[in-house]
Specification:
The relative contact order is 0.06. A hairpin with a 5-residue loop joins strand 1 (about 235-240) and strand 2 (about 250-255). By secondary structure, the chain is mainly alpha-helical. A 3-stranded antiparallel β-sheet has the order 7-8-9, with no helix packed on it. A two-stranded antiparallel sheet has the order 1-2. Helix 10 (about 205-220) packs across helix 11 (about 220-235). Helix content is about 45%, strand content about 10%.
Length: about 525
């Protein structure tokens, strides 16, 4: 990518769209005179130019951080300009928020790490002083074997394929490769994860990209995942106090399961207000309409809900409190037959169940959030709630269940949730509980209610598909393809990358029953 040549080309295209002599004050009026396609072109061109300029600014930010390293003390560049940290200087220069300035410093340090000639095994951001950290060979790429594990994300920022925010989400989410006796395999695994997440960046929101990176980190570093879970469990707390106006207040820090449980309660009760699934049952429809018309704010409804839940306690009538859909947390357990795992530690104060499910678990995560949890926790909860088994192949495709009914069954929806992880529409991060099962082959036209021919879509995108002329197709077990109205190139809807990691190495058992000839 030739930066200034591409900037000049982009500028020429924008000039052709809005005029070479356009004044800044006239831009809003000029936008009103453009058609929809021209406006989209303006956004695309300006975004590409901003990313190119952002790569320059980010690399310069990394240089400021290098020249302001803590080892330089008060003689550092930022310090001599009256700032305690390089982020504070960047904030003043750019007008960015403090968090954005800190993020820019992190990404800038990462970009300079390779030019500095680091060994690539540590986390990005270990800087040292010096006026020329890049050396005489700054324009030459290091050999592939010596490149830092985050190099592919750095390349993507410099090429304008991802933003600095996406870069930060990927690198911070993954963290540095775990230390091993043989460091090369760990660095290779992290580099491969970076590559896949960079490809995923254009399909996901930054928030989901960050969650995906964290989930992959937990899958790659099972021991670290257990340790981080224990640390979060230890930090659980509940503070209750009265402020100066006499209002009783509380502050809660949740552990993983507790937070997921409270989120499930909130979602189950407020889903109709937040664009949840359409209801078929008349009682559910009526309750949803009443909730939408309720004059209370969502925060007030949530407060009243929590009070009702606390009052009801263990004897709660879930239909009275939550409606037909009872709140709950579902753990997805990827079991590896004949591959027992080593036992994991249990947080203080929690009894570990004896034997059972956790003895053959490879991966365990919360269905809604993707957060990894220890195998013993799923085994413990299975004693109380039971389990539903679903056999899948290494691509996450559940086994064939057949054309049995017009609607997908509860167990089929569980399988779809495991495979899809939420709405499959490009760029949507709605979790499974907010999704509806869509038949890609219309049932009235002979389509089967098979998992292979179903896909999860959130309510908005499900309605968009039916009423907007979109359609989804699939050949065998290949990717689903989204076809825009009026023709045009099909848009692949690949599975979420963390789930691909979770399913790796899983082989389905042979089918026990086959249709008669």
């Amino acid at each position: 990518m030739a930066i200034f040549s591409d900037l000049e080309l982009g500028s020429s295209r924008l000039s052709a769209l809005i005029g070479a002599d356009a004044e800044a004050s006239a831009v809003p009026r000029l936008m009103l005179s453009l058609g929809a396609d021209a406006v989209v072109d303006v956004i695309a061109q300006t975004t590409a130019m901003i990313r190119m300029l952002e790569s320059l600014r980010t690399a310069a930010t990394g240089m400021i951080a290098t020249l302001s390293a803590p080892a330089l003390g008060h003689s550092g560049f930022a310090q001599t300009h009256g700032h305690r940290t390089p982020a504070a200087l960047v904030q003043e220069l750019t007008g960015a928020t403090r968090s954005d300035a800190i993020k820019a410093v992190r990404v800038g340090e990462s970009l300079l790490a390779e030019a500095r000639g680091g060994d690539g095994g540590g986390a990005a951001g270990d800087v040292s002083g010096g006026s020329d950290p890049a050396g005489d060979d700054a324009d030459e790429r290091m050999p592939v074997a010596q490149r830092p594990w985050h190099a592919l994300a750095d390349d993507a920022v410099l090429d304008g394929r991802i933003t600095t925010t996406q870069h930060d989400a990927i690198i911070r989410g993954l963290g540095a490769p775990v230390a091993t006796d043989d460091e090369a395999p760990a660095i290779e695994a992290w580099s491969r994860a970076v590559d896949r997440l960079v490809d995923e960046a254009s399909l996901r929101t930054v928030e989901e990209l960050r969650r995906s990176a964290r989930m992959i980190r937990d899958l790659l570093d099972a021991e670290g995942a257990a340790r981080r879970f224990d640390e979060r469990f230890t930090r659980r707390s509940f503070r209750f106090w009265t402020d100066e106006d006499g209002i009783r207040r509380a502050s809660i820090s949740f552990d993983d399961e507790g937070g997921a449980w409270v989120q499930a309660i909130s979602d189950a009760a407020l889903r109709p207000r937040r664009g949840g699934p359409r209801f078929v049952d008349h009682a559910e429809q009526k309750r949803a309409e009443e909730l939408i018309a309720d004059p209370r704010t969502n925060d007030q409804l949530m407060y009243d809900l929590m009070m009702d839940t606390l009052r009801a306690g263990a004897l709660a009538d879930h239909e009275q409190v939550f409606g037909v859909r009872q709140a709950g947390v579902r753990f997805v357990v990827v079991a590896a037959p004949n591959s027992p795992t080593e036992g994991e530690g249990v947080p203080d104060g929690t009894a570990r169940p004896e034997g059972g499910l956790e003895d053959r678990v490879a991966v365990t995560y919360i269905e809604e959030t993707g957060g990894a949890v220890p195998a013993w926790l799923a085994g413990q909860r299975a004693c109380d709630t039971g389990t539903s088994e679903c056999s899948i192949d290494s691509a996450g495709n559940p086994l064939y269940l057949g054309r049995e009914s017009r609607l997908f069954s509860a167990k089929q929806k569980i399988a779809l949730a495991i495979r899809d992880g939420g709405c499959r529409w490009r760029g949507c991060d709605r979790p499974p509980s907010y999704c509806e099962a869509h038949h890609i082959d219309p049932y009235v036209e002979g389509g089967c209610t098979d998992i292979d021919r179903g896909i999860l879509l959130c309510r908005f995108h499900h309605m968009q598909l039916h009423h907007g002329g979109w359609r989804i197709t699939r050949v065998g077990h290949h990717d689903f393809l989204l076809h825009p109205p009026g023709g045009g190139d099909a848009i692949p809807l690949p599975p979420r990358v963390p789930l691909v990691y979770a399913w790796a190495g899983i082989d389905p058992p042979p089918r026990r029953f086959r249709p008669a000839a």
